[in-house]
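Now for a specimen:

…
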Amino acid sequence: MTTAFDLLLAGLLLGGLYALVAMGLTLQFGVARILNLSHGEFLVGGAFLCYALVSLAGWHPLAALALTLPLGFVLQWAVYQLMLRPLARRAASPAALEVDSILVTFGLLFVVQGALLVSFGGGYHSYSFLSLPVSLFGSTVAANRLLACGVAALLCVVLYLVLERSRWGTALRALAGAPRFAPLVGIDVRHWSALAYGLGGAMAAGSGALISMFLPFSATMGIAFTLKALVVVIMGGIGNLMGCLVAGVLLGFTETLVSRFVDPGLTLASTFALFLLVLLTRPAGLFGRAAS
């Protein structure tokens, strides 16, 4: 029999994962003004890297995660410098940059997906790690899922504290809130945009590494993660990390309730129903501010 605590735990675990996946995208979109449609592909790339290190090289999954995070940062920072910075330099307006970035990252999506298909094939991959049940206040949850979501929560908290309590975070928040005026106070827009984009890449790759610990994945799953991340980012308010956390948990609870009490096949429909409800009542998102 499903108890209230079972639902609470399942919703928190799923929602925390959604929040972590979306945090990387909200950094890239909110600060760098890049709507990265290849976000999910780099997430899946992180999962495959972790899979290769664990299955082929014998690494511990947490050690693989520790390597995946900086590699994700470096790779996405390089993508911004080589492909997206020229777009930002020549864009006539922020709206033009968003359109150009959508086209470029849409093409990058297929490049990364094709590389993963060639390297690993189109089937599902997984590895065994802590696949044993754990009893928590009378509820049973897989140990690998519990560990992954605990690490995800830790990463969310660390990122939030860095952005809220450090000088780096102040610069990034200033750039997200007032990009036209940031240069007036000495903020190098291109430098900090690249940093934000790289941080978003680190969060994406780290999310993939955590997902690989408990969920089978394939080279074509990236678009599903991108869609969920977009929903969470827009629901929470673009560029707002707290909004990501709240929207991710809200989405996790909604999908859990629909799956348990209605029909598992309707979880995607419930996702977009909630999305439309939030947009109708709060067009700028739960924590967003309407443009004046």
